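INTERNAL AUDIT FORM
Audit reference: QA-55
Scope: verify that the stored structure record matches its stored sequence.
Auditor: D.O.
Record contents follow.
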Amino acid sequence: MSHSFSIRVYYEDTDMGGIVYYANYLRYIERARSDWVRALGIDQNAMREQDGTVFVVRKLEAEYLAPAKFDDELVVRTSVAAVTGARLVLAQDVCRDGAPIFRARVTVVCVAEGGAPARLPAKIRQQVH
């Protein structure tokens, strides 16, 4: 299952050199993951309030391929690389004009209150297999 999320680069996203500040790519892919989860029909607020579980990033590998600049239109593509009962590995590419400029591989897990590991919601495991 693949998901696309559009982002426009605003002036506030850039550094003194006029290019996107490196940490903002992490914000972009986070927004895309949240949108993807919402598109799956998962309410993260309800998950936290009713089940006492939340998603957390356990591991992230990132590769910066080319800079984005003010007013660029970017698309974050998210796809599932692997899923188990307890973790989800996502491949996320930030693209400009269809070409990747940033790549990330993100491992997401669920935790209960206090940080104890929890199983991923069945809805996610079923929809991404």
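Auditor finding: record pair retrieved intact. The chain is about 25% helix and 45% strand.
Action required: none
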